[in-house]
Amino acid sequence: FGESAYVDYDIELRNLRQTSTVQEYQARFENLASMVDWTHKALIAAFVGGLKEEIQIDVRDEPNTELRKCFAKARSIEDRQRKKQALYKSWRNVPVARPQPAQQHKILSAPPKKEEPKPVFRSRAPPPMTRKEREDMIKNKKCFWCKGDWSPTHQCKHIRIYTVLEGDSDEEGKDQPLTMEEVFEAETE
Fold this sequence. Notes:
This protein is mainly alpha-helical and about 190 residues long. Helices cover about 40% and strands about 0% of the residues. Helix 4 packs across helix 5 (about 65-90).
């Protein structure tokens, strides 16, 4: 049937917390306090308990017997804290004159390391295999690419190099990848 229009002011006042200034918190508190039938002492405890902790600590230093004095004390503490923060910020922004050290020879640091180039073979997929072959390879800690022993620092020994040759493609067998041995033989010739 929809939400009820009934508001439990006792719960609202008990759960009220300061989220902005003391003045705004006090206005909300007084509005809710006028709707409940609490003792004067309970109202003081609820007001002090809802203050921000940094203000609450100073308000609790002295025994509070009047709600109006609690309001005034909380506002003055907040005002004092705001002035302290402004003073602290202004002091933080003042440049400090530091004595310059005697001229010394600067030691040059090593040039920044260049990132190692990433392998170009990362994007290719491993050769097709069945699920059982894959599980066996994982179980026996074998590399999917070269079938050698695998470890987290493993590097495949057999890298395939493909070459593109200009000219007629009539010759059979020239489109096959070269092995490392064939590459080294071609370089030594």
